[in-house]
Amino acid sequence: MSRDIKKNKFKVKRKKRKSMMITIVGIGYVGLPLACLCGEKGYKTFGISKDRKKINQINNGISPIKGDIYLEKMISRKFFTATSSYDSISKSDIIIICVPTPVDERYNPDLTPVKQSCRNIAKHLKKGQLIIIESTVNPGVCEEVVKPLLEEATGLQAGKDFYLAHCPERINPGDPHWNVRNIPRCVGALSRQGLLKSLKFYRHILEGEVRPMKSIKEAEATKIIENSFRDINIAFVNELAKSFEVLGIDLMDVIEGASTKPFAFMAHYPSCGVGGHCIPVDPYYLIERAKLAGFDHRFLKLAREINNSMPSYTVDLLIKSLNDLKKSIRGTKVGLLGMAYKANVADMRESPAVDIMKILKKQGAMVEVFDPYLPDQSTVKNLEELLKKSEALIIATDHNEFKQLSLSLLKKNGIKVVIDGKNCLNNKLIKKSKIIYKGVGR
Ligand code: SAJ
Questions:
Q1: Which residue, 37, 161, 218, 396, has most beta carbons within 10 Å?
Q2: How far is CA 26 from CA 47, 51, 88, in A?
Q3: Residue 393 sits in which domain range?
Q4: In this predicted model, what pLDDT tens digit does every residue of 113-132 receive, in sequence order?
Q5: What is the pTM of this model?
């Protein structure tokens, strides 16, 4: 990599930045913090959304994403303008696509939002503009889908008339330390000029390292392997949870033990399932793209299969525990604690709790749900009401409020079984009582 690419430090004068305009297409978990940061750094910034309610909230300084203090603070300072119009595109120097890249019901990657964004951008694209994709895409999408779509729609040539780059997002919602400002990033581009422009932009707005990649495809692959790495490691401990249950070994204790090794071990934890907008989704991108090239990612697919089996495994733990009490799950009042896919966020995308609820209902259980971050998904007003209406509990999300659940409260409400899908309660204490407690892996 040449010196200017590795070393170039971005020193755009404030005056120049003031005249520079940025449009971010998609202002959700990824686009929202990025738009705030661009505005804070002095760029005239627009954020495009289809959601009018979200647009009004943001323009009034209110965050549409609850539970993220950092984001709420940034949005209250109104660093950018939210809009539904694409008019700002033609006047923008940089356009960043941050729309979702979900999978469909057959786990095939769905690039519809990315393609639709490109079509809308193409109507306003001008020579000299830089387009950056932050949405997670499988290796090859920028060159095989985005580039031809933009070129055909505009008659312009990527790498010459406009620049195309990929800087995969790395947001960890609810993380108190790592945020859009300080998370290191990787950038790849179609052309050297596009790479230089992208590096200069990101090295100006970010505090973390901005690493140039050999090409746009390597940048796409970086993100996919990061999240596939996490998915397979979670699948490893989830499979161990199943085997150690029959071996009578406390997996959580074993993971704590293994974690004393100061090198070459990285703890992951078993749970009722893997949710979120990235980890359970991204591996399918690679599986799908490699299949088209004739390679079968058996290991990645097996890991996905193991993680997707955890919601039903969790309900099976409840069924077995109720059977020990000569009770059937049919007609049992079950309290489901949490619908969000992880602790202290109001996001239930791909949440295992959704699968658990479906399975419980299919088995004939009478289900009550409480999630303090998702009141509209809850069937009761608070935890006390849920406990009153339950004989057995499944904890599907380790919200801080649930970790305070005391043995006395469980006893007072006559709870007979607790299945701890996130291993977040004090199992040693509960196991001393008559309450049947089972964690995932302990
Ligand atoms: N989970 C486990 N066991 C674990 C870790 C997580 O069962 O040991 C489950 C969680 O409960 C959750 C899911 O997996 O349901 C995903 O967990 P996550 O912590 O990865 O949550 P995300 O998807 O919000 O954040 C991830 C980032 N997480 C971390 O690095 C800690 C990261 O993988 C990506 O930067 C980010 O998604 C992204 O945007 O790609």
A1: 396
A2: 7, 10, 14
A3: 216-442
A4: 999 999 999 999 999 999 99
A5: 0.91
